[in-house]
Design a protein that fits this description.
heterodimer, A: mainly beta, seven-stranded mixed β-sheet, four-stranded antiparallel β-sheet, globular, B: mainly beta, six-stranded mixed β-sheet, 12 strands, about 0% helix
């Protein structure tokens, strides 16, 4: 069966510090991978998605970047965090291919920037 | 551009009664998918139900059904026989191409 792991679960970082959130998927090959951000009490904002190794599409211009160094690994990074980067970050995967595929989410990473 | 609208920030329902959560969408795509996800207070996102744009029958999954009205571009979620464990945030979502976008969500409170 497929599983998705996301870490760290919680982190508190000072403004200007770097960030790295990691997500890995097991039990499937060549998945579509996604990073979403959820502000407190709000909906999910799509940040990045990837349909293959090294292929990253950015949805929102911002202080963040994403990379996919391996087929089932997706990393969200920042060189210098801003206060506005605080939020709940969710990684998700779906079956490869265009269309109506169910998203399976990781447990999320709650980031607080002070 | 695609858009999902959920106009009910919060809803209350009595235990064992049915409740409808509203969702309207906008897209120029002919082929798309509509979803509902549940987010309990733990933060995890749980897939509930899916409806394809070409599906003629409304989707059902246990106590969940999706009332799909294509001409009105609506995809309302109906929860029958509400339970206390149904208290959560509910998000309507749409997939077109590789992307899935979400609405702002509706917080459902089930009263005993």
């Amino acid at each position: 069966s497929q599983t998705i792991h996301q870490w760290p679960a919680t982190l508190v970082q000072p403004v200007g510090s770097p960030l790295s959130l990691e997500c890995t998927v097991e039990g499937t090959s060549n998945p579509n991978l996604y990073w979403y951000r959820q502000a407190a009490g709000r909906g999910l904002q799509l940040l990045f998605y990837s349909v293959g190794i090294g292929q990253i599409s950015s949805e929102v211009p911002q202080n963040l970047s994403a990379s996919r160094p391996q087929d089932r690994q997706f990393i969200l990074s920042s060189k210098k965090l801003l206060l506005s980067d605080s939020g709940f970050y969710l990684c998700a995967w779906s079956e490869q291919g265009v269309g109506a595929n169910v998203l399976t989410f990781g447990a999320g990473s709650r980031l607080t920037v002070l | 551009a695609q858009k999902i609208t959920q106009t009910q920030p919060g809803m209350f329902v009595q235990e064992k009664e049915a409740v409808t959560l509203d969702c309207t969408y906008d897209t120029s795509d002919q082929s798309y998918g509509l979803f509902w996800y549940k987010q309990p207070s733990s933060g995890e996102m749980i897939f509930l139900i899916y409806q394809g744009s070409y599906d003629e029958q409304n989707a059902t999954e246990g106590r969940y059904s999706l009332n799909f009205q294509k001409a009105r571009k609506s995809a309302n979620l109906v929860i029958s026989a509400s339970q206390l464990g149904d208290s959560a945030m509910y998000f309507c979502a749409m997939t077109g191409g590789f992307k899935t976008i979400f609405g702002a969500g509706t917080r459902l409170f089930v009263k005993a």
